[in-house]
Write a structure and sequence with these properties.
heterodimer; A: mainly alpha; 2 helices; B: mainly alpha; two-stranded antiparallel ribbon; 7 helices
Amino acid sequence: MQALFQAFGLNGSLILAQAVNFGIVLFALTYFLYKPINKVLEARQNKVAQGVEDAERAAEKLAQADTMASEKVSTAETEAEGIMTSARETAAAERARILKEAELRAANVAADAEARAHEASEKMFRESEKEVARLAMLAAEKILKKSSV
Amino acid sequence: MKTIHVDLKAAVLGHVFGLPITNSLLMTWVVMAILILFAFFFGRNLKMVPGKLQAGIEMAISGAYDYIAVTLENDTLAKRFFPLIASIFLFVFASNELEFFPGVGSIGFFQNGVLTPILRAPTADLNLTLALAFISFFTIEITGLATLGLFNYTSKYVNLKSPVGFAVGIIELISNLGRLISFSFRLFGNIFAGEVMILVASFFLPYFLPVPLMAFEMFVGLIQAIVFAMLTLFFIKLAIAQPHESHH
């Protein structure tokens, strides 16, 4: 056994030293390499998960916005239709009212004109009557004058 | 006259406080320095949007972690053992591959006409592989004990219910202890044999043969690093498995 150890140069303190060396390597690699890498990997994983979540949320929001927009458009359409019909109704009513008023006014004007014409003709008639009476008196005078001569 | 000189053990360059400083211990420090410096500067400059290097390393690490979690079927255990398994792989891998850098094994001084290199692959020294085997072994056994409890865990090895069960328990116990040897000698043997093979090849055909052999040995180095880490993982998985109830 001793010869075997001698042949391979085995030495207890060397074995211990090499074990300690490996321990140092293990410690150093753990703190300088594995842990930082693990940290970076985890951080990146979290970031990716966050990104995916954000994207999902954004898509959801977009879908929501879409439905909201289409809802708004449809309500706007119905509203616009309502406004149009009411406007049309108002316009028709207004037209009727204006027409009626115009007719009324026209009728008034016509009646007025007729009355005025009637009055004028009456006046003329009265005047002509007076004239006729005057002329008749003049003629009678002339006749009286002639017969007295 | 040139000869091939093969050293089964690492050369002692000097002593510090009674600790023999071998060329493989020196190389271990170089490997440690490279790994720790890389980890330090890489870990400090991590970015949310990764470059190519960061993306690659992140992918490797998260892939290894996922594999460990799938194998252990438990996230807590995966978190606990990932650093150990990943570090075993990186440490063994770096040790195996840095062996092929120019200067390792070739820069040294002559002692009695033989070149004593200043740097030697750490994994081509049984001291390091045995140290790793001990770490792996104790991690496995302690995990089994802590997960299953003392009585439940020892019942895997000391089974007095039936003679067959007793024999199986003893075999299990011996094979568990044998892991110390298989872990350490597998890694040591592979890397050391690769070194010897390249040494012999460069002795006979120095300009052509060593290159493909080195490429192959780099591949072997990768495989051995994976094997060491994976076996640790699988043995942990075995250790935390419930003991089989009565197989009649």
